[in-house]
Specification:
globular, alpha/beta, binds iron/sulfur cluster, 8 helices, 271 residues, single chain
């Protein structure tokens, strides 16, 4: 729902609708399903589930953020970033195409906001973009999730063909190593992070160092959000600290976020 976001790489989240279907291992512990289906019973998840459009009041939130954007930019030095969507997938086949049309009309209207549209269905993007997309709206960043190399290879191959001012990868939850290709087009930005919450899966801190090294080598902006759990934090896994000791020195995100003592939180140059 529209709200000030707690996600480190954006300032607001906007959900035009709620509901989705799992498409890959990164979805196994879907937070949105746990909250909106299992806990609050607002929608039924899955192939035969529902997609519920959010309220008119919720759809007005971005218009308010857009009006406040010049002051935000003056104070913070960058354009406000809106994550769309955290409880659904904009390029979900089961969504009424008129809803997506309404969303892109809203995005066009809110031109002082940068919209970060993240999908696990990049194969659908081209056929679902509005007819005036052309080289991409100047305020839309398109991203896809890549939880392992198989998904990176499949999804980046599709996303990289779509024109956009910023293309990005969300390597979260990190479930296997991901390395960037040594030739061809590369994303502008790569967010990484470990899974959090009940049943969070483990991963190796070295995977994060390796992909950040690739980012440095190829000029991709890296943003490491969190380790997800202190069980994945390198201070525990590699340095032998207890979770409590690690928590005392690494307080960023869930499970801490320092990479060899530093925060790695960069953005592509857009302002
Ligand atoms: S694509 Fe996202 S919202 Fe949809 S099931 Fe997967 S994790 Fe959940």
């Amino acid at each position: 729902m529209g709200e000030n976001s707690k996600i480190e790489w954006c300032d607001h989240t906007f959900n035009p609708w709620i509901g989705c279907q799992k498409v890959s291992p990164g979805c196994d512990n879907c937070y949105a399903e746990a909250m909106m289906d299992h806990r609050y019973k607002k929608v039924q998840w899955g192939a035969h589930g529902e997609r519920k459009r959010t309220s008119e009041q919720n759809w007005k939130k971005p218009i308010q953020w857009n009006a406040q954007a010049p002051a935000f930019r003056k104070e913070n030095g960058y354009r406000p970033r809106v994550f769309c969507a955290s409880l659904a997938d904009v390029f979900d086949n089961q969504v009424d195409s008129s809803w997506r049309g309404d969303l892109f009309a809203l995005i066009r209207k809110c031109e002082a906001l940068d919209w970060l549209v993240l999908t696990k269905r990049p194969e659908n993007i081209e056929k679902m973009l509005p007819s005036d997309w052309s080289d991409g709206y100047s305020n839309v960043w398109l991203g896809t999730t890549a939880e392992d190399q198989t998904r990176f290879d499949f999804r980046w191959k599709r996303l990289k063909k779509v024109p956009a001012v910023v293309r990005f990868i969300s390597y979260e939850p990190a479930l296997g190593p991901v390395r960037l290709p040594t030739n061809g087009r590369l994303p502008d930005w790569l967010i990484s992070g470990g899974e959090s919450g009940a049943g969070a899966r483990t991963f190796r801190p070295q995977w994060i160092r390796d992909v950040i090294a690739d980012c440095r080598r190829f000029g991709v902006a890296p943003f490491h959000k969190q380790w997800g759990s202190y069980d994945n934090n390198p201070l525990v896994v590699e340095k032998g600290m207890t979770a409590r000791e690690a928590r005392a020195v690494d307080v960023e995100g869930k499970g801490g976020g320092l990479v060899d003592g530093k925060l790695v939180r960069e953005f592509p140059d857009r302002n």
